[in-house]
Amino acid sequence: MESFQEIIFKLKHYWAQRGCIIQEPYDVEVGAGTMCPETFLRVLGPKPYRVAYVQPSRRPADGRYGDNPNRLYKHWQLQVILKPAPGDTIEQYLGSLEAIGINLRQHDLKFEEDNWESPTLGAWGIGWQVMLDGLEITQFTYFQQCGGMDLELVPAELTYGLERLAAFLQVRDSVYEVEWAKGFSYGDVRYLDELQYSVYNFEMADIPTLWKLFELYETEATRLLSLYDPKSTGKKRFPLVAAYDQVLKCSNLFNTLDSRGAISVTERVGVIQRVRRLAVGVAQAWVDQQQEASVEVAV
Amino acid sequence: MSVPFLLEIGTEEIPDWMIPPALESLQVLFEKAAIPHDAVRLDATPRRLVLRAEGLSERQKDSEERVLGPAKSAPAQAVAGFARKHAVRPEDLTLESTPRGEYYVFIRKVKGRHTKDILADSLPAMILGIHFPKTMYWTGKGGAQFIRPLRWIVALLGNDIIPFELAGVRAGALSSGHRRLGSGEIAVTIADYDERLRDHYVIVSAEERRNKIRRELEGVRVKPDPVLLETLVYLTEYPTPITGGFDPQFLDLPEEVLVTVMRHHQKYFSVEDASGRLAPEFVAVMNIPSDAEGFVRRGNERVLRARFNDARFFWETDQKKKLADRKSDLAHVTFQAKLGTYLEKTERMMALVGELGGDRQAVRAAELSKCDLTTELVKEFTELQGVVGGLYARVQGESEPVWQAIYDHYKPESMEDVIPRSRAGQFVALADKLDTLAGCFRVGLVPTGSRDPFALRRAAQGVVKIIVEGKLDLSLSKYLTDQTLAEFLAERIRYYFRDLRGFKYDELNACMAAGSSNLADLEARLVRVRNLRSSPDFEPLAASFKRIRNILEQAKFTGVGRIDTGLLEAGPEQDLYEEYQSTTGQPIESVISRLRPKVDRFFDKVLVNAPDARIRQNRLTLLSALLREFSTIADFSEIVTTA
């Protein structure tokens, strides 16, 4: 039986063998691996890129105080980006399942329509949820737009739900029973985290403080973006990556405020628009900055 | 010589529901290419669209093409120039007479092209022309668009490959088998195509896959679900049903919730026991031939257990707060930005239910109808809105009329769906839909073309269906203050009576011209007109009414004044007047056979347009009175007559 960490090792190894850079998790809170600069920024522009990384992903509203066997405030995604998507992307993906010990001749695999969309990122793609014996194990997306722009090269994004995969492989009814490493369960490692963050997100997070923080990060991102000058000769050193981190902060604060019940349905759309505007702004500036850089390399 | 044609478009998995329309679209495009052929056969799996045709010619017939040149009178230089352009001598041109005079014509002999070449030229556009609701690009910005990436193409005419390339894929004779049980490259011919694919675990025919599922389910008491069956037929290449079970303790949860989890979330069929009650079993359809080790069954059982546990958790959590106590929470749920919250909608609905004639219980149902929007169960299973509210109301002790009305109030959800079972439910459903329609139209959220984000067509259709089939005696005009909305609803009324009830469009025009505010009354009149239509006197009389209306319109007759009997001429005019007098107030059915000959004779013998203005006016008055008398059930001049 593969432990949780062995499954991760094997998947990373599998994708490393197929030309992926193996990255480590991004160090700013995100709701999904897609939001990391390694995906959001790298899919933009004409440069090919291949990367795989595990990303702990925070969804404050999904927290269940560690009580629910399948729902988590923070879950582990394995994110793979193949840019551009090779013609045998699906074959490679199936190979990765076999690499972690799933004999696909004995299991039922289906690709069910599921087009991914993130209004906050101005991003969407076409794809499927991959169902293994009735369990959704992966979101498979061909990106079409990001930051509101059509993509030059179409990347494939594979997002594996690692807890589900591990529970499937280890035949566990609860993710907390999954063996993380020999002698340690997922619950041993993560239960307190789930409990305490559920308490914080649902009960104790201070709404005025969160709003204040949101505005501070928003202001900083806006300030930076307003300073970006596409005509400047020194624009390559402009800190767009830092500006993007402010956007990620806003996004996570928005999610926390939402789980705290502090955002009415009417307000929601407006706040999403505010974050989207920043994300799109960073993406557009990034594309501009990259164009210039590629010219320099060519010279 | 006649040859068969095979086109297999190999792709990544196409959404199941898009496949049958895509095949239809492909066939239309193929027919447009106008290549003569015999029988066409269409097949598909999630990964391939297949078109086969018999009896194509290897070469198309020779033909002639005529190019019109200069007129005969044109200078010789121009004629020579025209001939040179077509690489012939002037004497090779022919002269043809046209309506504008004689002209030189060059007749080009066109040799029939090889069908293979025609197909090679037309197939790329044909494939990319298949209509899909949403497409993607995958080869890079500006590249080909299709539903999912194209991965292989088989294009054969007889034994020959039709050579073309599309989005980097070269057409050939290599197909692809089941993703894991078959080979990725299978050489096929038109003759062995089905068999070769079957060897590689792909059943090309949807019909055969459907039959395989049905056959293997014989003896299992599956709840019939044709829609789910179609989904599974187009989600698999080699379907095999398996039966799994769940803990009977979950049967404490409402059947609606269990079935929704199984059907919508897991694509399982539900199973009944001998008495017709839900059994603790399900049927999943796999995309492989067997589950010898039981992996698939156990995997699906585990997923279902987790889903049911979630549902139970939500059900129990929701019980902690009664529906009635959730009403104030609706102030935080937006109905639509410009139309306020669900609390406001609830209050409007309560008032409207009262106005429509609903009793205390109907108003109570309206009050609680939207409260389930704040429950965890509805947040998780949005398709169960209303149903969940009804179920909670029942366990929380609301009376049967109240909980049933809440349960039913989104009905009818389609034209095939039934209307709410009780009066209270009908009133709540009507109030909900009328409020949505009136509100959306007021703030300009009017459906355009295929864009109808608030499902206003369905709402309007529901209004019509509920009133007619619920036989509700109420006048709609009061709620249709907006002209655009009135027209929108008239459109739905037509659709309902024409497409669902089979009335003819002219019968509808005729009856709606006499009013459509009271739909029960409209229905009754439609039935009368349809019955009248079988009378041999009907069409001639309708034609006469049309004539009367034309005469009145031409004369710009305003319809004032009374008939002056002193001015009536003895004979047909007097007879018609007497007939009119004696039939006034009687239903048209009982007078039609007497009235018709009188009208005919009048038009035969009497000149309406009499020279004497007073007589003319009097005759117009008589005709107008007659028209008015029999236009209360329908405007018969709208009837399209065959004569």
Beta-strand content of chain B = 5-15%
The number of helical runs of chain A is 8
CATH architecture of the largest domain in chain B: Orthogonal Bundle
Helix content of chain B: 40-55%
Give me a quick take on this structure.
The complex is a heterodimer of chains A (299) and B (643). Chain A is an alpha+beta fold and 299 residues long. Chain A has 8 helices and 11 strands.
How would you characterize this protein structure?
The complex is a heterodimer of chains A (299) and B (643). Chain A has two domains: 4-201, Bira Bifunctional Protein, Domain 2 (BirA Bifunctional Protein, domain 2, 2-Layer Sandwich), CATH 3.30.930; 206-298, Methane Monooxygenase Hydroxylase, Chain G, domain 1 (Up-down Bundle), CATH 1.20.58.180. Chain A has eight helices and eleven strands. Chain A has helices spanning 4-17, 37-40, 89-99, 162-170, 186-204, 207-227, 240-259, 265-298; strands at residues 21-22, 49-58, 74-83, 109-113, 117-118, 123-132, 135-146, 149-150, 156-161, 179-181, 184-185. In chain A, strand 6 (123-132) and strand 7 (135-146) form a beta hairpin. The mean pLDDT of chain A is 93. Chain B is an alpha+beta fold and 643 residues long. Chain B has five domains: 2-59 and 115-199, ACT domain (Alpha-Beta Plaits); 63-110; 206-318, no CATH class; 324-527, Hypothetical protein af1432 (Orthogonal Bundle); 536-638, Isoleucyl-tRNA Synthetase, Domain 1, CATH 1.10.730. Chain B is built from 22 helices and 19 strands. In chain B, the strands form seven sheets. In chain B, strands 2-3-1-9-10 form a five-stranded antiparallel beta sheet, covered by helices on one side. Chain B has a three-stranded antiparallel beta sheet with strand order 4-6-5, covered by helices on one side. In chain B, helix 10 (360-368) crosses helix 13 (400-408), helix 12 runs antiparallel to helix 13 (400-408) and helix 13 crosses helix 14 (423-442). The A-B interface holds A 68-71, 84-85, 87, 90-91, 94, 104-113, 115, 125-126, 128, 132-135, 142, 144, 150-154, 168, 171, 173, 264-266, 269 and B 12-13, 15-16, 46, 134, 136-141, 148-149, 151, 168, 179-181, 184, 235-236, 266, 268, 284, 286-288, 291-293, 295-296, 298-300, 302-306, 309-310, 313, 332-334, 337.
